[in-house]
Amino acid sequence: MSVEIKSGEDRYDIVVDGKPAGFLETRTRPDAILFLHTEISDDFAGQGLAGKLVTAALDDVRAQGRPVLPYCPYVRSFIAKHREYEDLVPEDKRAEFEL
């Protein structure tokens, strides 16, 4: 299985063997990047693709030196389980996201 993550304007896409498998919708603001919605196609469910997609997106945002506001429930729970990404959420916003 070949998995490719593509970043575009206000979204990250995950492609498996050349087929679109899901996306992560974002919004860029001057103060942060908002992670709004993660969706994986039913055809690709249960393969850990959402985690791969979110990991790639968070790593990309870290490389840009930008903070994240995880409004997407999946991203929020992912960060709660993977505390190495918690620093991307501004300290004064963590309580709002229960982090």
Automatic annotation (TrEMBL):
Matching Pfam families: Acetyltransf_CG
Stretches assigned to coiled coil: none
TM ranges: none
A GO molecular-function annotation: transferase activity
Domain N-acetyltransferase: 4-90
Keywords per UniProt: Transferase
Keyword Transferase belongs to the record: yes
Entry keyword Secreted: no
InterPro entries recorded: Acyl_CoA_acyltransferase, Gcn5-rel_NAT, GNAT_YJDJ
PANTHER family cross-referenced by the UniProt entry: BSR4717 PROTEIN (PTHR31435:SF10), PROTEIN NATD1 (PTHR31435)
UniProt-recorded name of the protein: GNAT family N-acetyltransferase
Native species: Amycolatopsis coloradensis
